[in-house]
């Protein structure tokens, strides 16, 4: 059996300490690493006092999601890394069905079934699909038909997945191009599958409770989150597509700059301008 590490990127004490006991219970005899992204509260002190078996890495400056995860992967000793958000609580028996797939040498990442309660109703997610449409990669949830059968996925969610550590590091980990957040996990899975021929799966028997977006809403606010997500959707195309698909993207841009901007009440235009600025800045930094 391959060795396992758990990596939890974190910012602030809550909701981490609420869910950490369940993580420890569900992942016995595994290395658990919390990478604290320069929390402004007493997170590190609290963890060292109340969770002494958990390894804590504290960033001196805020790194955001992608690099925070990369730091955890580099520090981990396990061959398989379970990456989960601080607002995730895994079910007791989630580990075995998640990790068994790594007997396949082509396996890169396996995503979990996520459970959340919205307006008193239980919702499940984790299976997804992607298609290139109107010049962009469109990603969406896919209906989960069977709770006992694993299936191919477009991407493994950075909120709850298992990943081959060696392969993750070999392909460069999460790309900080998307800083501060969004599209890192889609980009990672896309590179692993399209450029390296690795496999991405969804495993419905590995289940976690996930209260989505709790950290980002409090830090960024809803409007900024929408702008970041749309900006990074643009950056994803510029980075990953060439030839006819990239040409189609630019042919569709006048439509999006007009109608998508109107539909989103100006958000697309703001996101597009930010994408241009961010692309120029990162390309300039890479040359230097």
Q: Roughly what is the average pLDDT, rounded to an integer?
A: 93
Distance between the termini: 44 Å
Largest sheet: 10 strands, mixed
Task: Spell the H/E element sequence.
Answer: EHEHEHEEHEEEEEEHHEHHHH
Report low-confidence residues grouped into runs of 5 or more: none
Beta percentage is 25-35%
How many strands in all? 12
Described by the principal axes of the CA atoms, the overall outline is globular
Q: Provide the structure class.
A: alpha/beta
Rg value: 19 Å
Task: Count every helix, treating DSSP H or I runs of 4 or more residues as helices.
Answer: 10
The percent of residues in helical segments reads: 40-55%
Top keywords for this entry?
globular; ten-stranded mixed sheet; two-stranded antiparallel ribbon; alpha/beta; 288 residues; 42% helix; 12 strands
Structure description:
- The chain has 10 helices and 12 strands.
- It has helices spanning 16-26, 43-50, 64-75, 95-99, 165-170, 184-195, 214-220, 222-240, 243-263, 267-287; strands spanning 4-10, 31-36, 55-58, 80-84, 88-90, 107-118, 121-125, 128-133, 136-141, 151-152, 160-164, 199-210.
- With 288 residues, it is of the alpha/beta class.
- Strands 1, 2, 3, 4, 5, 6, 7, 10, 11 and 12 form a 10-stranded mixed sheet that branches.
């Amino acid at each position: 059996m391959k060795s396992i590490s758990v990596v939890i990127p974190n910012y602030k004490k809550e909701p981490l300490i609420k869910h950490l006991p369940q993580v420890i219970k569900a992942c016995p005899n595994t290395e658990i690493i919390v990478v604290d992204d320069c929390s402004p509260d007493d997170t590190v002190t609290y963890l060292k006092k109340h969770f002494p078996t958990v390894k804590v890495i504290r960033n001196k400056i805020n790194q955001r999601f992608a690099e925070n995860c990369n730091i955890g992967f580099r520090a981990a000793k396990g061959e398989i890394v379970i990456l989960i958000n601080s607002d995730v609580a895994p079910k007791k028996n989630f580990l075995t069905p998640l990790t068994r797939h790594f007997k396949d040498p082509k396996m890169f990442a396996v995503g979990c079934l996520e459970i959340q309660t919205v307006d008193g109703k239980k919702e499940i997610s984790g299976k997804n699909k992607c298609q290139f449409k109107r010049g962009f990669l469109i990603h969406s949830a896919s209906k989960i038909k069977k709770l006992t059968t694993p299936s191919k996925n477009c991407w493994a969610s950075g909120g709850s997945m298992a990943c081959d550590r060696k392969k993750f590091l070999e392909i460069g980990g999460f790309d900080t191009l998307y800083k501060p957040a969004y599209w890192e996990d889609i980009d990672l899975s896309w590179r692993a599958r399209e450029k390296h021929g690795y496999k991405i799966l969804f495993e419905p028997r590995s289940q976690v409770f996930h209260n989505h977006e709790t950290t980002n809403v409090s830090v960024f606010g809803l409007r900024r989150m929408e702008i970041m997500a749309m900006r990074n959707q643009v950056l994803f195309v510029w980075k990953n597509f060439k030839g006819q698909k990239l040409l189609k993207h630019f042919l569709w841009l006048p439509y999006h700059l007009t109608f998508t901007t109107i539909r989103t009440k100006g958000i697309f235009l703001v996101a597009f301008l930010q994408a241009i600025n961010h692309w120029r800045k990162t390309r300039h930094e890479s040359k230097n």
